[in-house]
Amino acid sequence: MGTRWLVWTALVVSGMVLAPHAWSQATQPAEAEASAPPGPPTDPALRAAFDEAGVKYEVFRNGDLVLKFSSSGEQKVTVSVYVKPKRVRFGDLELRTVFLVLPFTGGAVPESVKDHLLLLNARMPMGAWGIDSVPGDERVALLFKSVVDADASPEQVYRTARYMADMAMRQMGRIGQLVREARGAAVTP
Amino acid sequence: MLRCAFYKNRVVMMAGLALFALVSGGPVIAQATQPAAAPSPGVDESLRAALTESGASFEELPSGDFLVRFRQNPEDAQGMPVVVRSRRLTIAGQELRNIFVVLARGTGGIRQSVINQLMVTNGSLPVGGWGVERLAEGRFLVLFKVAVPADAPPAVVYGMAQYVAQVAFRQRAQIAAMLQAEQAATQPATDPAAEPADEPAAEPEE
Question: Is this prediction's ipTM beyond 0.95?
Answer without folding.
Answer: no
